[in-house]
Fold each of these.
Amino acid sequence: MKHYIVRITQSIKRQNSVAKDKALIPIKRVLVVITKGLAQETRETKVMLGTYQRFTRGRASKLEMEEANKQFVDVIRGLGLGVLAVLPFSPITLPFVVKLGEKIGVNVLPSAFTADSKEDEIIDIQQEIEVLVESDIVRSSSEDKR
């Protein structure tokens, strides 16, 4: 009799763990999307800071400065949502604020969370340009020392 009870409880535990795993799949997908969005924002912010650094030296173009300023606005948006995330009832407040912003026509989320594929390509190209520009600066400074 004990043997059957043990088997039944083990079966119930297995069913519970399978149901738990199935319930976690949508949560994991959302977390992956958030992780990718935050990683993209990090890359864009690094490019922005590099652009501002070149601007202080007089080496940034107007187009680069426009893109850097757009990213700065995204950083401010993220900070605004970060403040709301700390407040109580944020799981209710944040979706409400995002939906309200959509109805009013105000973009509340940073661009990484509403990004188009074209924007991703532009960011990748900008990052490649940043690497090339930085390598040229390092080469020219090493040639000047000679």
Amino acid sequence: MTTTDYILDSALVLLVLIQIPERRLTTKALVRPLVIVAIAVANYLHGIPTAGNDLVLIGALALTGLLIGVASGQTVIMRRGEDGEVLARSGWASGFFWVLGMGSRFAFLVWVSNGGAATIGRFSAQHSITSSGAWTAALLAMVVFEVGGRTLVQAARRRQLEILPVPELA
């Protein structure tokens, strides 16, 4: 793993820490993880392999990422503030799902870099996965769908809260 790998993975995991205290759920807060993912995709995706079962691997990890992202976004604690703004914070459940996705990819990369490559090579040969590019595309698809799913769920929930009347002060 390169320094860039560590920085990008750490930045995505640390995003959940920013959301532990309750804060306004702004468009900037929703877009920030998408920008980080776009940087990762631009740095690492050099094509989408389609031979053998490459697309099956990519689809399976994309679906896994989407499920984790939707679960994370759905479990963010959100409410309407006194002045009408939408407030959000990550609770334990949301943090768990976010770290599950980001941490599992990070652990996979560390494992492959420290002796797991031969196992992945055997698995790939047995399951007609044709190249390391398929694994790269699959892991990137997982993160794109996780971040995208989480962001879309939060944006939809924010929109639902915005149309509710502002709570009255007691």
Amino acid sequence: MKIAIAGYGQEGRSSYRYWSADPKNELTVFDENKLEQMEPDGVFAIIGTDAFSQLNGYDLVIRTAGLAPSKIVTDGKIWSATNEFFAKCPAQIIGVTGTKGKGTTASLIASIFEAAGKKVWLLGNIGTPSLDSLRNIKSDDIVIYELSSFQLWDLEYSPHVAVVLLIEPDHLNVHIDFDDYVNAKANIRRFQKAGDLCVFNPANDLSLQIANVSSEGKAVRYAVPDDGGVYVRDGSFRDNEHIICSIDALQLIGNHNVENACAALTVARFYKLTDVDIESGLRKFQGLPHRIEFVREIDGVKYYNDSFSSAPSATVAAIKSFKQPEVLILGGIDKGADFSELADAIAGQKNIKSVIIMGEIRQKLAEIIQTTSPILQVETTDLTTLQPIVELAKSYAQPGDVVVMSPGCASFDMFNNFYDRGDQFRNIVNNL
């Protein structure tokens, strides 16, 4: 079979390894950019800005996640690593999507199932290419699959359990429009069968919209007491009136993480996991790097790395997680997001003492924030390295304050990615 690998990043290389294992397949790599890595030597590649318009004559075109299907011109079948995994995986899949919180929620679910003694595979958007693990997965294992809109774009399957968290505008620089983004997300629900479950956020209209997509699977709300999902009352996680455990078992800060835990526990109760296993799983999970990650306390000031925040809603959740006076570092590249909610949240959080805005969006974002918070200290900086920006934040902070880097924007103007941004922040703080 003639196969084109469209896009040769981490997922594309994984796809090449998977399909090249069959010697009957003839593979060609296509990418718009110069390849950083070739594996193995001698891969035939077509490179250039028009590469994806040259895909006729292939039986199968394997679309890498971030490549819009509309950019592919082919007379063959467009497929993806995610479609291949769902088609071939022998185990039940729990899929998690949302604009924010999906990595944390997927990891919480994984921690709880591991505490229950299950063999768990945490795959997908969280960083592990799924096809690299497929051959080792057994039928009685559990797969937790974090699904971005890019992976869901043309997915032809839905997971046995779909978790739909908060949905709001994101990646509008890649999707055709917001409807395209939401429609992609809806594939997590669209193909569910009888016996499947959709756990959704009832406070979010778009999560509700996805849950209402025509499907044979059941839909259950989380974080509310009247629909069978897990919720919080009097400091405890509850299922109906049954107390599962204290919310103190959750090792993550912020009300948004309490809600994420409600979603994870709703999945755990669907699988009839015990209260002991659930509490153990919550206590073992200490959080993901770059998600409101405590770095260090210096002279009475605590520093938090929330570099994963590339959307305004994530920054809103971060700043609401603290009651101490906050020095906030924002900014990066504008992805077409609406920053009005963030501006309103900053105005409503009386503990925010100053905001430092970096990156390409700095002037636009400063104007938006100053409209709702005219007396707040807002400083824009054209500095292109993070060290002096952190030192500036340190100069504003007093004992008892927190310094939070929660950019609310993409990172590519100053950094390789959000990992690089967070790693730099962590290293700078540890060397202050």
Amino acid sequence: MGHILIVDDEKSISDLIEMNLAMVGHTCEQAFDGKEALKKLREGHFDLCLLDIMLPGKDGFELIDDFKKSKVPVIYLSAKSSLTDRVRGLNLGAEDYIIKPFEALELIARIDVVLRREGKNKKTFTYKNVTVDLNKHLVLKDNQVIDLTAQEYLLLEALILNQNLALTREQLLSIAWGYDYSGETRTVDMHIQRLRKKLEWEDIIKTVFKFGYRLEVH
């Protein structure tokens, strides 16, 4: 997981982003204007910056050169939704451009893509006697390989990358099966039961009543 700088002048939005990222294992620092962002950049080390565009002082378009010089990848988060702004942001060197408002799951997924590309994301997940290597798509239990189907692994990866977040069955279908999957949601239930049995994770793969599932870790 990454250490992320959130630069947004709306504290309520920044706090919500920090809360969601902390739940899945990222650590965060916050800045609320351009001057504070530059101070944090000089004093700290970050794997990624989530950068608003409309900021007091230097705006996000002006700040990106400083982040590029420090080799900190940037994802723009902005209410500026015009094609011109999006193209400008990407041409300036941003890794991605996400339009507000956005879903937490989308933000987490896009962060994961950038951190994977930069080689800065967490590569393994361990709980008790089970280790999941997210790069090698390998699952070990007591140092022995666990035989998961491709679909079981994709579901497990979705739970790990969104740990502590409650996911609906429809969201799990979209993430693990693909947006065009036309099966019924009970297929999720069957695969969850198989994962619980194979990994002996009945205690952390939680059923969220009338909603879906959550991988609950602390």
